[in-house]
């Protein structure tokens, strides 16, 4: 479906994408995961033909976004990062506008958007600017889908949306897969990676790894420990002082920690912390997540 | 399909315009306010100008001259003075705009070969008005002289200069203002509003979605400008209506030709607006370019307020690049002189040239991508 081959792009002197290569299969829900500034939006815009690459090749269903941009624009649906519908037009008017611009009507493809649109239909007379974040996102998705695109490109659709709406949104994407639509979606939230078929981990314009969420987690070979204590203040500094500790990152209420060689030195760590006056420390073996793997990959690259 | 796409785009644009009540009010009230302000406040016309008389002759002829000045309607005698100092003080205080001084033997010396003497002293701190006052007064006195000299006694045929102000006989300022304001408002509404509305799409990110859509650049551009064509025409006619009905500006030409020339000018202004939007990255820049690059030159360089002939040569050259100049000139010809297409063809041709040039530049500059 999408074939990206050694793609590079610079903004002036600042490199945005360095030598990216990956493939997206037809019918796949493909996630591009990375922090802000990783180059996700730039990558999407090049695929969509909105930006020109400096070097490298991109093919979307065999089409070249540089030369065949008109054909590509007919088969893609795009939801940009920021809400880009018309805030002074109502929900219904926005949808009607995009339907007729794409040469279709709401009725024609209603089956595609039905599940999504029904949730905002009670507010169809309301100006889009007065919708909540979650509803705006549903409207934008409906507008991007209305012409039954073969490829749906969603740039950070869940940013700024509450947890319940985010979860609902991913459920909708899985339903859309049933219609055979290929979806690429970017997100800065690592926990959303597990909802994709395959993900690309991106950092500073480079792709660290492309794999299924399961494979990515399995790539984490070391034993991971969760360390916590009643008073977490400066615990991370104390842990770093212990010579056998390799990495330690704060994760919510726990520190995620690995030892040099990937083994288990938890008893020694416990003694060490005790000598620093930190009693009652809890150290347990935990399952690594995608974010742990991401941090590990970042450390090696 | 293409027509339907375009139509829904135009409808969407119209909705943007009509839902933005504040801008809409400004769009319609601004022209009316402008024409009323220019019509009532800025006036170069001469009516009941205050004059003072220092009549050292006090004879029949001097009375006659004063009567003629007053009966012309341009002058009004504010006061009579007995001494020169008194008169000068009144002039200095601004009580009077011009003083008329008769020599002691005014009446009797009219028969003499070296003639009689009357002096006009004008307050030239307002140079334009002073010049006009003196000109008018001279004309009136000259008329009196010819009439009162017995034809048989005339030693030689006097050289008579008779100046008449055609098309705007009373030199009323508002006549000048109406075409100027139309030129200014139309370029402002058309160029500024379109450039802002296109750059707004860029700023809000909706341009990205429009670019991804199958809409062609010309459809986006046409859809953007169509509502403003109608809006601008409404504006043009409301200014014209106030000019004609409130200020009695003559409209001696054909309304059809006036509409055609206005439409051409509106399209020109719109294409300029599109061109600005292809250069400006956001609404703020678009607005500043429109204001400083369009409005000020329109006011200052198009002959709207300051006569082009009075400008330094290099500015005169520059004023040739000002599209409003040609529109104002064509409007004046049509409205005041009742000119037909044969008279204004040059202006029409030049404006068409500008239109084609800006359209070409805009389409060439329109980016189908984000950079």
Features of this protein?
heterodimer, A: alpha/beta, Rossmann fold, 6-stranded mixed beta sheet, 4-stranded antiparallel beta sheet, globular, B: 371 residues, alpha/beta, abc type-2 transporter like fold, 4 strands, 66% helix, elongated
Please provide a written account of the structure.
The complex is a heterodimer of chains A (301) and B (371). By secondary structure, chain A is an alpha/beta fold. Chain A has 2 domains: 2-216, P-loop containing nucleotide triphosphate hydrolases (Rossmann fold, 3-Layer(aba) Sandwich), CATH 3.40.50.300; 219-300, Alpha-Beta Plaits. Chain A has 10 helices and 13 strands. The model of chain A has no long low-confidence stretch (mean pLDDT 90). Chain B has 14 helices and 4 strands. Chain B has helices spanning 2-19, 21-40, 60-71, 84-93, 106-109, 127-148, 173-204, 206-212, 217-245, 255-279, 283-301, 313-319, 323-337, 341-365, and strands at 49-55, 75-81, 98-102, 118-122. Chain B has a 4-stranded mixed β-sheet, sandwiched between helices. In chain B, α1 packs across α9 and α3 (60-71) crosses α6 (127-148). Chain B starts with a helix and ends in a 6-residue tail after the last helix. Chains A and B meet through α2 and α3 of A and α1 and α8 of B.
